[in-house]
Request: fold
Amino acid sequence: MNEAAHHRTLTRTDLRKRIRPSEFIAEKSITAVALLSLASIIMIFIFAFREAAPIFFQKQAVPSAAAQAPMEEQETYGEEMVAQIPGDAVGGKGGVETGSGEGENVTMENLLGTMWQPVSSVPKFGLLPLVVGSFKVTLLAILLAAPIGILAALFTSSFAPRWSKEILKPAIEILAGFPSVVIGFFGLVTMATFLQSTFGYTYRLNAFVGGVAMSLAVIPIIYTVTEDALNAVPKYLTEASLALGATKWETALFVTLPAATPGVFAAVVLGFGRAFGETMIVLMVTGNAALLTPGVFEPVRTMSATIGSEMAEVVFGETHYTVLFLIGAILFVFTFSLNAFAEIFVRQRLLRRFRGA
Reply:
């Protein structure tokens, strides 16, 4: 007996020795990939903030004599150029660029202003219209996408027969991989015309069209995460509810859905982040006008669309370039805070609460 046990021990030890190198390589490879991913995120974070930092460390403009001399020489030439461009003070991309902030200091008052006119004789970098436009489109998209995505996931999880479930879930998940430019084209060509003829508003491209088009990109994300959360609810909860006499829809609405609240909340947060950072769809269907208005049927411009449309046209290192990186840093901080909030609140608060810990 002792000899047989010794042979069994040796056999297990030998097996461990044979598989240990591969386990070691796999472990180190996964660790290296994880560290590389973390380092990449940190480098992106540092790069974005380094490019935006000059906004906060600008040198005060000192009108020295040496600096004033060339200004006096350029004044006559500049006035002539401005005089040839009537209406340039209105701003917009239709005018010829007479100045985009190069060599000028951007004050906090300018950044908190209500006008975004970076290309004009007097550049204005007010971020408020861009922030309001981003939130307007995002909230509209979430208001449309969250109920549809959650109810679709509830139907698939609780009511759909097996054969239709095997078709519905992959089909909706494929929509999550749709190129955003395709959704943008659909919104620009078809959806905008249909919605305008239905509701009769003035501007064909506006925040409402952007929210509806964006919801098409957000629904698959909310559906997928919510459906996984609903399937993770313990079966004994639904079986107990049905055994007590509750109907199937009562069990789904008042037992299964509340038990999956952390996952549903995480799905909505992920959808919010996806909509807030989307560029191509909002660039194509929102009208792309930086207007600060309360209506949802008027054109807007989002932060991400501003970066996407103007970054390729700015001069490296000038004020306009730096402000665009500041917008990118704000987007980065917002999405990072949103994910951190979801991680802390969902995992550490809601999961503990629903698990009775």
Q: What stands out?
A: The longest strand covers residues 116-117.
